[in-house]
């Protein structure tokens, strides 16, 4: 099947391409002016990355920098090492960064590209499902601090994104399943056909070569593109829609869980638990009916994601949620649903509601 091109319109338009065997498209996406390419890759993926480095080396001076994997790598010291390496290699404004890895690599590599000389071209080659459907699209880049996730960052849109489904063949199953957390989230906030697809098929069939997985990837990316085109900088949507903030459905609690677990809970797993939690908040606040709240448990559970978590106290998670970027002053804000694909912001829900939803999340009470 030929590659599908999903255009991202806006001030700096670019394409997200979904398909197989896409590495040959890289020079066309990089453009004519580029002489040097900084290839910032997840250092554990050397074997997978080597063919891409070899083919880039035919046309460009390639500086390949292996990055520490995962959230632990999204540290300012790693960014500083990259800046030093770019400086030593004489990187100019007409050179480019290519990232190769999961969401953490995209965030980190994108941040290096956003900050070097106040911004150079970057092309993302995500190697995980999570990277494809979320991190690589929409121009958010960032690193972590002791206080929380992605608290330092910049908006820096890529020149292109190549989602080569072949790269998912070697992705551990648990990582693929974690990526489905963001996909199912898109089903709840914008495209319920995603829910029908995951509920009607056999989850074991969702593999790199499956047409259903490909459709899920394309649908989730389309949800993300529609949102970022309308509200790139997350200033808010029209007619009561939360705008880009909608993509953070389930993330307020999700980020708190990731942090409280020392990032042992994968992002997509934490998002699944966080979506179940916030559906329960909405149900208890009286805006979401029982059936849609319950559907959160069944849809995320169906693809093998966790829907309960009891690794931290309510107080710990509540404190962690307060430093979430979505908070305003001391007031917690959540994206909630009134129904499928009907999101809105709920600001300052009562502590009773939050605590009761937490009890449900831990499995202590239904
Ligand atoms: N991952 C959420 C966003 O890109 O806005």
Automatic annotation (TrEMBL):
E.C. numbers: 4.2.3.4
UniProt: NAD(+) binding residues: 103-107, 127-128, 140, 149
Reactions this protein catalyses: 7-phospho-2-dehydro-3-deoxy-D-arabino-heptonate = 3-dehydroquinate + phosphate
Top-rank EC class of the record's enzyme: lyase
UniProt GO BP: amino acid biosynthetic process; aromatic amino acid family biosynthetic process; chorismate biosynthetic process
Presence of keyword Zinc: yes
Keyword Cytoplasm: yes
Family label: Belongs to the sugar phosphate cyclases superfamily. Dehydroquinate synthase family.
Protein name: 3-dehydroquinate synthase
Originating organism: uncultured Nocardioides sp
């Amino acid at each position: 099947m030929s590659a599908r091109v999903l255009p991202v319109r806006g001030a700096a338009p670019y394409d997200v391409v979904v398909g197989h065997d896409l590495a040959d498209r890289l020079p066309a996406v990089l453009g004519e002016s580029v002489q040097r390419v900084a290839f910032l890759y997840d250092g554990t993926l050397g074997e997978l990355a080597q063919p891409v480095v070899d083919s880039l080396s035919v046309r460009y001076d390639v500086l390949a920098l292996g990055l520490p994997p995962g959230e632990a790598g999204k540290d300012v010291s790693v960014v500083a090492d990259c800046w030093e390496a770019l400086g030593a290699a004489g990187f100019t404004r007409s050179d480019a960064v290519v990232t190769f890895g999961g969401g953490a690599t995209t965030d980190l590599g994108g941040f290096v590209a956003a900050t070097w000389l106040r911004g150079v071209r970057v092309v993302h080659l995500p190697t995980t499902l999570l990277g494809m459907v979320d991190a690589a699209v929409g121009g958010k880049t960032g690193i972590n601090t002791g206080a929380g996730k992605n608290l330092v960052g910049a908006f820096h849109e890529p020149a292109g994104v190549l989602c080569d489904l072949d790269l998912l063949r070697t992705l551990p199953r648990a990582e693929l399943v974690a990526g489905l957390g963001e996909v199912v989230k898109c089903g709840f906030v914008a495209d319920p056909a995603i829910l029908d697809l995951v509920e009607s098929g056999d989850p074991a069939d969702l593999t790199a070569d499956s047409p259903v997985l490909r459709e899920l990837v394309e649908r989730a990316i389309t949800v993300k593109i529609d949102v970022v085109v309308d509200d790139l900088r997350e200033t808010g949507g029209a007619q009561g829609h939360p705008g880009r903030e909608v993509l953070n459905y389930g993330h307020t609690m999700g980020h708190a869980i990731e942090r409280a677990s020392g990032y042992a809970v994968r992002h997509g797993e934490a998002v699944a638990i966080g979506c179940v939690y916030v559906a329960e908040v909405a149900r208890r606040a009286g805006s979401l009916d029982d059936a849609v709240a319950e559907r959160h448990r069944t849809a995320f559970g169906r693809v093998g994601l966790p829907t309960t978590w009891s690794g931290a106290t309510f107080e710990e998670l509540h404190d962690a949620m307060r430093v979430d970027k979505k908070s305003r002053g001391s007031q917690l804000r959540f994206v909630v649903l009134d129904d499928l694909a009907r999101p809105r912001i709920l600001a300052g829900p009562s502590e009773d509601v939050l605590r009761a939803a937490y009890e449900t999340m831990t499995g202590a009470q239904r």
